[in-house]
Amino acid sequence: MNRTGALAVASLGLLGLGVVARVRWPESSPALGCEPGAVRVVEGVAVCGEGDALSAPQRLMLGQKLDLNVVTESELAGVPGVGRSLARRLVREREVRGRFVSWTEVADVPGVGAARLGTLQATTELR
Q1: CB 24 within 8 A of CB 38
Q2: What phi and psi, each to the nearest 5 degrees, are found at residue 45?
């Protein structure tokens, strides 16, 4: 077999491997059969139903968003890109003015620029 034939066989092999991997790849459906809000931790394992409520870092790790109107300062400080001082300012502003109802109000807090606003929108929500 010449060099071109070997490359063709290798290419077909990789193509076949890609097709098999795509067919057998895990689905995007949730691994647990419950709503994200019903996920609990029992002995360090995520389960549906009874158990300890998820901590803020655990919720973020599972792709869930934190409620910016109820999250604590320490939980908010744990969000990558937020930090303690901005978390403190956000919580104090929330205590002074009440619940945030729009992202414009959040953007008005000193220290919240476009990048941090994007981070907050990706990791928190306004309920």
Answers
A1: no
A2: -115, 135
Residue 92 DSSP SS3:
helix
The span from the CA of 68 to the CA of 54, in Å, is 16
According to DSSP, the residues that pair with 125 across neighbouring strands are 67
Answer yes or no: are the C-beta atoms of 123 and 66 closer than 8 Å: yes
Residue 40 has which token pair?
A: 């609990």
User: Residues 87-118, buried b or exposed e (16+ Cβ, 10 A)?
Assistant: beebbebbeeeeebeebebbeebeebeeebee
Structure tokens at 50: 């009874």
How does pLDDT run across 75-121, given as a tens digit for each residue?
999 998 899 999 999 999 999 999 999 999 999 999 999 999 999 99
Number of residues that make up the chain: 127
Model pTM score: 0.65
d(CA 92, CA 72): 11
One-letter amino acid of 24: R
CB 49 within 8 A of CB 40: yes
| Of residues 27, 28, 51, 22, the one with CA closest to residue 38 | 51
